[in-house]
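Table 4 source record.
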Amino acid sequence: MAAPPLGLELSYFRRFIELHGGIARFAGLTTAQVCLQFVVPHTASTALSLVEHVRLHSSEASSVRTANWYVSHAWSYIFLDVLESLEAFFPRVGVADPVVWFCVFNNNQHDTVIRPFSWWQSTFKNSLAAIGNVVLVMHPWTSPVTLTRSWCVFEIYVSRCVGARLGVALVPSQQARFFDDLTKDIDLFYDMLASINSEKAQATIPSDKANIDCVIRDEVGFLQLDRTVFATFEGCMLSTAKAALAAATAPRERALSELMLAHLYDERREFEEAKVHAEAALKVLVQEAGFDNLQTITARAHLACTLAETHVHQSRWEPALREAVAMLVNAAGPLSAVTLKYEARLGRLLSSHSLGTSEAITILAAVVYKMQSLYGPRNHRTLIVQSWLDDAIAMESPSSWLPKTTFGASYTSPANSGSPTESPSMMKNE
């Protein structure tokens, strides 16, 4: 294995800012602008990368050491946001002052030699394998730019290939919003993952995209890469939720972290783990927020679904789930995401447990109709519930797969149309 490349201590980033006039001069600048306005002039006398310039021509050469983290980011990101994201991330993983490989500082910005993609590919792969850790900066968390950039997607792929550890860094304000959003609707996270489409990722240099696409087609394929990215982010999310639970001090804060873990384990079909966390969340929420609180009702609904998936007797989950769904209609509204989610799960469970397929079809058809109006027919939430409806109808009447009277004579089920927009979250619920 190649020796790990050099990098700069993260603390040097602040020193670099001080050397060039302080925070005010960097405010609002993208990473690309910082490169052109500060890095290139700073290293002009030596025509070296900033890392080599500091190592060979600075009194702060001790800031250059063996890199132990690789930073994956988009050049369009605000530089200070990237820095704040990293400064918030590393304490959470127990790293006091990491030494990072940061392309703006590590690559020689004066080097005009055009190297073949194969050189970049092998150099990058060997370096990443030697470093062993990757942190992906994500802004905004609902639609991160990094997942639309070919190089960033390629970096995630290579990190998996070489067995590198992958972490996700959010700017502090995004971190707070992230947890607030997901405690209200965990499916927002899966909405984000469902948007992953590595084939549509772009690169500044068209030939880079062409070369990266060629490697992906030859080695893994776009669909499998999307699944890999999906699984990677789901794993990161699980680790983040566990860390949040460990750090929580207030009872309600712990309960919401427990509920988030219950949702995540449920999506992974690890129902015994999901049940443990759902029970813990519900116990605290009943005490802290009351029986009629929306989060308490959500926890009740989720626990009932989890119990059903662990094949306990229907008397332990069906009445509780029906009651929780009725309460959600009143507490959150009939068209809220959480109400539709658990109405749909009630329909699917009635069908899969053979407890009333006709009723299940009625419930699922109504949810599909609402979701088509709210989210659109191609939205991944709609498609998942549509697939459950198709399954229920097939059980009820195998000879007539889908009654045309439901959605019209020309209707074809999106879930069975062979659409190229199939998302990883759909696959998980098959």
